[in-house]
Every structure is written in structure tokens, then in C-alpha cells.
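Next comes one such specimen:
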Amino acid sequence: MNAAPFGPATPAAAPRRATAAFMRSHPAHWIALGFGAGLSPKAPGTVGTLWAWLAYLVLQQWLAPLHFGVLILAGTLVGWWACTTTARHMGVADPGSIVWDEVIAFWLVLWLSMPMGFWGQCAAFALFRFFDAAKPGPVAWADSLFKGFGWRGGWGIVFDDLVAAFCTLVVIALWRHLW
């Protein structure tokens, strides 16, 4: 196996489906698969976002906002590596079981929009899932920029979710400003 930080640009022969055994086979897989959330047989992106929401609510009890921002930045960089590695090992450019991109992006939404009550958080969740799944306008553009394997493909997995988070934050800001 290549010792380069992001590995070779071509996929390795490996399973195309994430399993618990696959997740346990490499530290990058644990991260990219959202510590198991991506193994959900139905709607892994939604399950990953729900996991992110719960994890945020737990972690905010111990992390100051600045520290959470550092965690998001570090999680984005480590996640880029983990998504790149896991996609290559799966032999799929952007597998649905990779959910770390949802985790980081939804953490960003919550970090920048909290405090808000339960229904505000539900609205943020629904908006983010809409932008991530439907990929309107700027999210579709971002999704088309970085495709394939290697560092570009790994960044592409993360980038479109960051744009979905940005769109979610714009809607939340407009809603707060107008009401």
C-alpha cells in the first residue's frame, strides 16, 4: 500500500459494501462511516446527521464554542483523509455509507446557529437534509467539482456537504432576520 498521506489515486480491490468487519479493518473507516452510523441499511446520511446532532448536544456540555470550532476544523481535515481512504478501499468514489461529511457539516450548522430550541434544531436538521439530499443549485455545483478517487475525490465527498451547511445557515439567518 502506498505510504502517501492520501494514498494512490486509483481504488484498491476491496468490498464495495460497508460492513462492521470493514469498518473495524482501518481507523479511517471508523471515522468515515461515522462510528457505525453509515452502516445503516436505510438512509445512512440521515442516520449520520442524527448521530451528529446527538454527539453535538453531548459534546457541547464539555467544549467551549472555540474548542468546538477547533474540533470542526480538525474533524474536517482528518475526515478528508478518512473519506479519501475509505472510498478508495471500498472502490466507490462517493459511497453512501460514508457519513463523516454529514457529521462535520451538521456540527458546523449547529455550532454557528445555536442556541436555539428543539424545534429550531429540527428545522435546521430538515433544512440540512433537504440541501444535502436534493442538492439544489450551489450544492449540485459543489457536488460536480471534485469527483473520482484520491485527494480530490475525498475533498469532493466533504465539500458538497459544507456547501449544504452554508445554504442551511443562509436560510436560518434570513429566517432570524425577517422574523
Observations:
- The helical segments are 20-24, 27-32, 44-59, 65-90, 100-113, 118-134, 138-145, 151-178.
- The chain has a mean pLDDT of 91.
- The chain has eight helices and no strands.
